Amino acid sequence: MQPGTKNPADWGNMRGFIQPMKANSADRTPRGDGWVTDLKWDGMRLQVAIDGDEIRLFSGSGRDVTSHFPELHSIVDEFDADHIDEVVLDGECVVFDGGRPSFQRLQHRIHASRPTAALLAEHPVFFVAFDLLSVGGNDLFAVAFEDRRRILGELLGDGPGWRVPPYSDGDPDDLLDLARDRGLEGIVCKRVTSAYRPGERSPDWLKIKIRLRQEFVVGGWLPGSGGLAGSLGSLLVGVHDPGHPGELAWAGAVGSGLSDRLRTSLKADLVASPTCPFAEQPVLDRPPTWVEPTTVVEVEFSLWPLGAQLWHPTFRGIRVDRDPADVHREIFAGSAASHEESADPVDGME
Question: Which of 65, 222, 223, 280 is deepest in the core (most CB within 10 A)?
């Protein structure tokens, strides 16, 4: 029988879904000894439950996604050789794009319960295993993280679609710099003594996300809604396209980070224009007010895919020291715009 083909009615004796442990958010790395650091993978949390030659895959919410990722089913062979019948692994399912996890590419796989051969070839998934929850029917929740990870590395070797990545036991800021340089999502710092607490968000795991920032030219604004009705809701921003002088390339709308005072002052100071300043007029859900493209603002964001809008933008301030004509898209190290090689992001940890 092929892995994953057991009748659901016969799954009663197989280990069910374990609510995953989650990390607290932090804006800086922890100080002191007793911490190790993992890269933060931009993918989907995935739990792998194995019983003999049978496998079940669960999303972070407990949804059965066994049929979604058939290329991972052969992971059971890794444990057959050691005669281990029951194992539960915790990790992340990712799809790589030029050596960097791409959540956009993963979208093609998340909703395909029966992926075609073409889809499997175009967007292959990779399982990054970072924790071991159970072996041989014995829960390892109370076992220290460093011991769980060591046992995991001894049991699971690198395969065609999976890997136990090395973690860093050095200065977490060094790995944060590496993640920033590679255009990755961030890092997760974990206490070496931490137990696994199913379903809890624990301070023993701290996630630090990387945010990018640069200047943008304001080309318009959208009115607010709800409590912001009648005021400026968000700024419409862009950058100059070096290939088309004088034209603004649309980058997105920024509302987060604007105080009430700033909304009032910007609404009064921005000079209205009868025409859209963007090379291609964006599709918006409310009628905009176009403005003269003379105001420069600094915006922080998590990602800016080529040909797409800013992800999670946050307003940081007005830049009176910048000429709007000099504002272009910056190429961040490791970003989609600068990635031409297929570097393996986990290699830099070894």
Answer: 65
